[in-house]
Design a protein that fits this description.
single chain; 521 residues; alpha+beta; seven-stranded mixed beta sheet; 24 strands; 18% helix; 26% strand; globular; Alkaline phosphatase; TAT_signal; PhoD-like_MPP
Amino acid sequence: MDAPRRLFLQHAALAAGGFVLPGAHARPPGTAYPFSLGVASGSPLPDSVVLWTRILNDPLNAAATPAVAFAVRWEVAHDQAFTRIVAKGTASALPALAHSVHVDVRGLEPARWYWYRFMLGDAVSPAGRTRTAPKPDSMPAALKLAVASCQHWEFGSYAAHRHIAAAAPDLVAFLGDYIYEWGPYQLAHPASAVRRAESFSLAEYRARYAQYKSDADLQGAHLAAPWIVTWDDHEVGNDYAGDRDERLDAGFALRRAAAYQAFYEHMPLRLVLARPGDYGGMRMYQRYDWGRLARFHVLDDRQYRATHACGPAGRGGSSSVTRACAALRDPARTMLGREQEAWLAEGFQTSKARWNLIAQQTPMAQSSQLPIAKPGDGRFWNDGWDGYPMARQRLFDALGKSGAANPLVLAGDVHTFYASDLQKDFNRPASKGNPVIATEFCGTSVTSSSRPQARTLQYLEMNRHTKYGRSDKRGFMLMDVTPEKTTTVFVGLDDVRNAQSGKATLATFEVANGKAGARQV
């Protein structure tokens, strides 16, 4: 039985037990179920949350859904049985947006959990659980946050999402690589990866999201809590930079615009476009406050970045470079773009939050691939922040100038757990003159493969500001943020290929209020 149908039948069974209103399964036999991709919520504000679904009868055959607009009903309630409805309405699912539905529900109470669902005809979607952010001037006692990234369909099951749902977080932060651009379009995770069927067109990216979102465990994680999301490279193509891809394709801007549109069509986001219909310039960076406990600065380090420094001739994409690369010292090169840099600096400057969480794609801590014994030594991957050291320095300067409290950098991308101290000069020990200015936690991948652990241990020896590294496990991070401290747990799967895999705590770190630097406990 395919995953979407199994998930629907599970919810139909709940309906029979009184957990949702009757009607979720009261449809003529053989009628296609329109909510095959589930539902989601995200982008929470104190009075609002975005609800999402997509009308799609068959995840692998978009043509099976008629190319007409649908009037989709939605409801938000205080209770799972929907006896106390607080908001409802009708939204249009348009063929031009792949029959996706985005409802920005306003007028909700702050710091409150709600249930929501969609209806089309007599079909009823699964009931999702969501919540609003706390009041701006409040100090919440705690925030439970799950952090995940990098979920290549080809490299394992989504057991991590099953464990995320079971953890019942207040919020999920997904830091990029929600899809990967290649692999056969199929509804079962394969035993091994097959590199074919790369996505280039809008239809192909839509099909890729439908494939990924058909997974029952991923749907379950979306049902459990609201998400905040950003993208990385694989939502478009491997290691692209700005308007240039690995192939140096003259038509890459069109491909990127198609990929960005498909991303919006499948995420619970508020749409911000410079011009109507211009998805190629869609703004991704966002800011969310969790009362005065936490501010999320959600970044986009792909769309506006300079091309890779000192790359090989004849292709784009990443490579490893030494300090002999003069472009590394060019102050004009940017990772975020000047407008986003200014926005981030303003967000630091105005933040009244106890904790400032910088949710972004790739590790900020320096990571040399060779020992550094003297100035000029080292070799660095130019796709990460090591390839943009002047931009990293500007970010550190803006952070220091602002006085923003307790900065925590969240990262993904490299499929490895890392806990690192961030400092202006990574080549000198931390000291009064070279203080730790922030703490970085990098999460491993949900599925995507990584380097051998023995190589990661070598990296730790060469980069002493990184206190922990684990690349042989897939999983996610769980964070407990309180006014007094933030606790980060690295959660690893026993077997990523097994959808029923167990999990284990690999390491736990604490950062105390007012004291940068992670302490393993």
